[in-house]
Each structure stands twice: as C-alpha cells, then as structure tokens.
Amino acid sequence: MSPSDPRRTVRDRIERRALAVLAVVTTLLLVGMFYYPVGAVFREAFIVDGRATLGLFLEFLRDPFYFGDLARLLRGDPLREVLPSLLSFERPSSIVGFTAYQAFLSTILSVILGVPLAYLLARYEFRGRRTLRSLTIVPFVLPSILVAVGFRATFSTNGPVNTALGFFGLGPVELLFTLEAIVIAHAFYNAPLVARVTLAAWESVDASAIETARSLGAGPFRAFRDVVAPQLYPSVLMGATLTFVFTFGTFPIVLALGDASLMTVEVRVFRLVERFDYAEAAALAIIELAISLTILYGYLRYEAKQTMQSRGARPLPRRPLRPPALTARELVPRIGLGVYSVVAFVLFVVPMVSLVIASLTTDGGSWTLDNYRFLLERQVEGAAFQVQPWPAIRNSLLFGVATLAVALPMGITVSVLTTRRYRGRKVVDVIAMAPLAVSGLIVGLGLLRGPVFGIEFGGYRLIIGGAIAIVAAHAVAAYPFVVRTVAPGLQNLDPRLVESARSLGASRARALVDIELPLVWPGVVAGAAFVFAISIGEFSATVLLATGTDQFTMPIAIERFIGRRLGPATAMGVVLLVVTSLSFIVIDRLGGEQRNGGL
Amino acid sequence: MRRRQYLTAAGATTVAALAGCAELQTPDDNGDDTSDDGTTTDNGEETLVVSTYSSFLDAPSIGPGELVQQRFEEETGVNLEWESPDGQVDHYIQRAQDGASIDSDLYLGITTEDLVRVDEQLDDPLFASGLTIDGQDDIIDGLDFDPEDRAVPFNTGYICPVYDSTETDAPETFEELREADHAGNLIAQEPGSTVGLAFMLHTIYQYGEEEYLDFWADLQEGGATFLGSWADAYDAWMGGESPMVISYSTDQVFAAGDDRDLDKHQIQFLDDQAYANPEGMAVFEQADNPDLAEEFLEFMLTPEIQGEVAENNVVFPATETAELSEEYAELAHEPPEAVTFAYDDLVGNIDDWIDQWDREIAG
After folding, report:
1. Which pick of A258, A498, B177, B300 has the fewest CB atoms within 10 Å?
2. Model pTM?
3. What DSSP assignment string belongs to A458-514?
4. Among residues A34, A62, A90, which one ends one of the domains?
C-alpha cells in the first residue's frame, strides 16, 4: 500500500484519534453510571434542612459508637483516660475501628495465602498448572450466600474439618460466627486476587536479569532478594491494598458468617439506607470512602516511585514440582508448598466441595438430584414471569463478554492517561479508582434514583435501563482492575520503545497495541479475568437496571431461588461455579500465557 | 397534543437506537394514555399489574404466584402481570419520592412496618385509603393492622422458636429463654431481617421499650448468635450449630415434606404467644385500574383461594372462612395467643428501637 492509499489514511485518522475518542467515551460512561448517580446521593450528606453543613460528619466523628476512643477525645474527654484503651491491641468495639481491624487482619491473611500460590504457579511446572492458574479467581465470583453455605458446612461443629481434627485427637474448633470466620472468608475471596496480581508480576520478571546477577556471583537467595522481589513488591502491595479496600467495605459476609456484635461500616450504611436516612447513610459512606481512598492514594504514590525500566521479559524457566535432587535446597521449598497446599485445600477447595455436596443432599442427609430437577423443571415448565436457569446463564455470559469488550479498552485508556507525567496525575488515578471503593449500597441507590427512575432535565425524564445499561454498569465497576494490572507494567516500560515507534510514524494507539501491550500481556490477561469475574458476580446494579426477568443473571437466579430451603439455590450456585470455571479456562487459553513467550 | 406526539415519537427513536437502553418520558406520561402503557392488550383484554415480593413468585418451596395468576385469569378473563422489584415496597416509596411514575395497580405483601415507612417518608398518599370490599368482614380479629383501611390482610405468619427436641429442652417463657442454658442454644436474626424484626418487636411487646435491651443483653451474654437473615440462621441451625432458631410456626410443613424427623422440628410458643406478621394488599393511589384491583382483593379473600394461597405460601389465612386441608392444619401450628403491634404503636418508634438494638449488641 502506498501512503496515499485512501483506506490507509482513514485508518490512520481513526488510529490517531482512537485514544482521545476512548477517553471521551470512558468519561461519559463513568459520569453517567457512576459519578453523577453517586454524587447525587453524596450531596445529601452536606445539606440538612436545606442548608449546607458539615454537621453530620462532626456528629459521626464525635460518636463513640462509630469512632470509639477517637470520638471520646474529640468530645473532650481527657487524654489520660482515653489513652490506655487507645493504645491497647484489643479488638476495637467501635464500628469504624472494628471495620479497619478486621480489614487489616483479612489483608494479612490474604497475602499469606495468596503469595505462595503465585510462587507455585510462577516457578513450578506440573500437570494441571494452567488449569489451576485459570481457576485461581473462581472464588471471587461466588455470591456470599453460597460462600456462607460452604463455610458453615465446612467448619461446623460436626463438619469435615472438625471431624478430621478429631481424627488426630485435636479440636473441635468453634470457628463459626466469630471474627476468625469472617477473616477466613475474606481471605477466600481475596487471596486469589493477591495471587493473580502477584503471578502476573512474577511472570513478567526477566530471566536475563537474574542470569546477570548470578553470573556476577550472587547466590540464588540474593538474586531473588535483589532482582525478583523488588519487582513483586508493588503487585503484592497492590493486592493487599485492594483487599483492604474491599474488606473495609464488606457487608453480606459479615451478616452471614459473623455475629451481630461484629458490625461493619457498610452494615450500618445498610441500616441507614433501609430507614431512608439517606443523608446519614451518605455521610457515613463518605467517611468510609475517604479512609479507603487514603489507603489507595498511599499505594499509588508508592507505585509511582517504583521505576524499574524493563524492555519486556523472557520469563523465568519453571522447575519441575518433583525434586530433581534430594538436597535441602530442592526439598525445603517443596515441603513448604506441600504444607501450603493442605491449608489451601481446606480453606478454598473444601468449602466449594461442601457447596456441591449441599446441592446434592436432602435436609435429611441422603443423596438427591431434586435440586437439579427443580432447575430443569423451572426451565421447561416455569411461568413466563419466573426466573429461568438457561436465560440467566446466557445473560451472564453475554454480559461478561460485552463487559470485557468495554472495560478492557476503558482500562487500557485510563492506564495510558495515568502513566503520563503531569502534576496531579495520582489524584486523577485515585478518582478513577473510586468505583472500587464507594459503598455498593450507595452506588445502587444512586443508580436507582438516577438512571432507573430517570434523570430529570427541562421537564423530561431520561430513563436508562436494559442490557446496555447493565453492561455499562459492569464495565464501570470492573475497569479499575484493568488499570491496576496494566498501568504498572506500562509505567515500567522503557519510554524509548514508544518514542522510536512514534518516530517511525506509528500513531500512539498503534504503538500501544503493537509494542506496549504485548510486553505487559500477563497484566492484560489478569485484568480481563477480573473484569469477567466482576461482571459474572455483579448483583445489585444488574437487578436494578434489568427491565425484565429475561435480563436476569445467574447471581439473581440464585437469590430468587432461595425459599424456605436453600437446596435449589445451591444447585444454581453449582451451575454458576461450573460455568464460570469453564469461562476462565477459555479466557486464559484465548489470552495465552505469554504472547511474546516465543520470542 | 401535537407536541406530545412528537415527543413520544422522539422517545421511541431513542429506544430503538440504544436497543432498549434509554427512554424519554414526558412529565405527564404516567399511564393516562392506555394505548402505550399496556393496560389494555392488542386483543382488547384488560391487564392488572400486581407487585409483590420476589419469593411469592420465584421461591421453589413457597411461592403461590402461578396459582394466583391462573385462577384469577380464569375467573375474570383479565391478564395478570407481576412485578417484583428488589426493594419491594421501599422501591415504590423511592419512586414516589423522586417523582417517578408508578405503573402498578396494587401491592401484595405489605406489612405494618412498610405502612409506617410509607407514611413517615411520603406526604402524599401512595395507596388508596378507605377500602371497602366483599369478604373484609371475614378477616380474623386483630389481624387488621391499618387504621386507614389502605391495607387488607390476606395472610399471616407467626414467628417463634423452633428447636431440635433430641438435643435440648425448650424454654416455655421469655424469662426462661434469657437464662444462660437456653440463651446459648439460640440462633436469632438481626432486626434488619423480617423474622429478626418480628422477634425483636415481640420482646418489646413483652418487656416494653425500657427493658427489652436488657433481655437482649442477657441473650448475648448467654451465648446466643444473631445472624443477618432468616436463611443464614436456619442453615446454621440445620447444620447443627445450635439446637434452637427463631423461625416460622409452619416449620413442620417443610420438615414433613422433606421426610425429616419431626422431633427435630418442634415449635415452642414463648408464654403461649407468637408474633404475627400479617401481610396485606393495598391499591396504589395512581392505579390505572382501581376497580379491577379491588376485584383482585376480593378474589384473594374467597375461602378457597385463602386456603390454597396459605398452603402454597406456607403461612396462615387471614380469614375465618378459609378452607385448609386437615393435613396442613395438623402440621402448621397456631399460637394460643397471637400478638402484634398495630400501626399506631409502631409509628415514630421503630427506627429508634432498631438503632438502640444495634448500639446495645454491637456497641
């Protein structure tokens, strides 16, 4: 093709504007489906009886029910009376204190359980490794009602864990409805997240850097500490930050697995929304958001300082899981992994198996297919107004794929925009991450009172709903994951790569697609997996935006199949488990492990 | 009028362009025009839109929706359409607050607490008041919870402890329950759930608003567990975590259906009482078809439907004339004394009661 080829110039023009167009579309989606609806609800926190005020925030800050000792200090209690309990390490009894405390513990446990999995998957070769890698984030999509069913079955007084412990003369462990149960359930959701982002970083580590270090005389431990570990810290910390933010906003798990004495901020927001106390609910949610965003901002500042320039990776070779020699150096890490797999089996696999068993047993304890028969009957004979399994499966998959198509370009665009150098870009980045941190209840309320009921202008109401709105809402909720898995990689790329491509006439978008993205491909695939997971698992926005039961998804079907017996809902849960597992395997196979792996 | 037509047409274009994504509504487009909001179908049949909670339609173990629809359509030749928004009655309160239209004719399943919230949140009426319909006189005394006759009860549940008698004895009174050896056996629900709220209200009925928190403090001290929803609590109870749970007095109906040992599903009425949770039907003020809606209410109170809906929904009928099968009556237990707070007792109190409970238990 000559440069004057008209097709070429049209394509060029599209390419040259592609990023700008994507940026505009992204902004519109975010404003329409997130910032405007959420802003409208938040606004109420600042207006009491028609007057602007910060009074509600002060009330919260001074109420020991929310802020404990801090509130006592603010109220003017003398420091010497408050200090002893402020400095103690006991579980805080105030709502905000307890919420932060359980989020902190959940984060630590998620890192402890997530990093070894990333190590296993990044550094060892074994049968089923790729499948295990694909399935890592399956727990992420399970509705909490089902996780609760699985956990209660697993850890109940006469459940499998206590039976096994009893076999060794240990236990029983009374875990349920305690802080520990909540923390473990949070790790069930979030350790996979930590593992997946850490794995993406580990797979991007350049083998030649280690070979250089080793050739300069560094031992394997030193090479790991000086070369590999610094490339992993940002990802581990990112996984930890996201875990903290998610568990700080935790809600259904606390209600299902914890006693009412363990109340989190989000549970309280739920109460306030339930009684139509929107101003107070909004104020509390803003406090919650401020704490989450502060943590996120701290992480993003740290991430920005990590400038390790890389020109892409030749990945580390994997070792066989079977030790090649019986030396301590070969055996110790493998024994460690062995212990880890037992723990991981109990915490991740047994609850899911328990769920499957629950779907196959009657309340009396005998085997049955009745719950699946119910799904089939509902599909074949169900009335038109009833939720049916197949449309729910189909919708979930369609929305998932459509969300991928929207959220990936959105996330990559925002990644490019936030890794450019300009003042305040971290603030932009934090604002772009807000969908991760804003109270889900407030987002739901905002969507309801905005797009669902209609946004009023000039006497008319613009009502937004249906499939496209659902996909838009999913994309808004999911795209931050793409940013967080893609941006760090882009940031670390040698800018000269792009510069030379541009000087050869490539557009910015062309350079991005042809040069940068292949180099950060593990991050893109990890982001895609998260996007799909978020879309499949989404409940509240979907149920609000759907204009009919024919747009309902699997999580909604599960909720609707709960009657006075949980069996049919668990069967639908198993369907969700199977469908999403297969989808993740397909996504990973399509995405490939390493697009440039052959180089 | 021309302007109106133009706007409707413009709205239709938007719909087509975005494949059902957006719709433009004029301010007065509240269903006064029967041709575009579906109150009449193409073949001229009338349509009644009934809103209800989703388990009335979808739940496998309960859910009489299909039955009600079939019978009503057969009897009247009217099309019945269901709506079940996630927020239930709150959804319509929110719509009214934000000036969004209400395209439904009546709500099935409204509770006393719902009515209180409607009145606390809205200045204009959401439901039509002063209903007089056939069959109203048959309603059991004490179930009628709305002094303004907006809501007509159609069924009721009773909330009480259910226990496994192979594991524990049951307390016969609230005073016995609050003792440590019984309290430690109990799984209850937070007042954020329907069942939890009913049981909390029962304790206020029993001890008054000054002392109910002491009762709950004793339960907590004695080792009772309070979970978020009925499903969570019941699942934990079935798993053997504790031998006693707060549930419905119809529990044995399910247990018998599942071939469970009924000794493990014993009902205990504390102080010979249970808290009644009557569910009512109310016609929306904005209803397109108020007459048809009232016809539906009358249909729901007929003896045969009362019996069938109660059995399908696994609750109790609201009328004295209901026809229940003997088998059902044997398994579904009615308390010697049903107690419940009427509308006037709850107005202005309920939010504070729940808030104080939160602060007592979580503070």
Report:
1. A498
2. 0.92
3. TTEEEEE-SHHHHHHHHHHHHHHHHHHHHHHHHHHB-HHHHHHHHHTT--HHHHIII
4. A90
